[in-house]
Amino acid sequence: MHVSVKRGLAATSVVAAVLAVVTVASSPAVAADFYTPPSPLPAGQNGDVIKSQASTYNGATATRVMYLSRDAKNKAIAVTGTVLVPTKPWSGPGPRPIVAYSPFTSGMADHCAPSKTLAGEGGGDIASQTHSLFINPLLERGIAVAQTDYQGLGTPGEHTYVVRASEAHTVLDVIRAAQRLPGTGLAPNGPVGITGYSQGGGGSAAAVELAPEYAPELDVKGAYVGAPPADKAVLAKSLDGAYAFGFLGFALVGINTAYPETRLVALANEAGADLFVQATQVCTMDAIFKFAFKQSSSLTKDGKPVSAYLTQEPFTTVIKDMRIGLRKPTAPTLVEHAPLDDIVPYGQGKQLAKDWCGLGANVQFRDLLALPLLPHVFAAQPAAGNSAAWLGDRFAGKTATPNCGKF
Question: Keywords for this entry (predicted)?
Answer without folding.
Answer: Signal
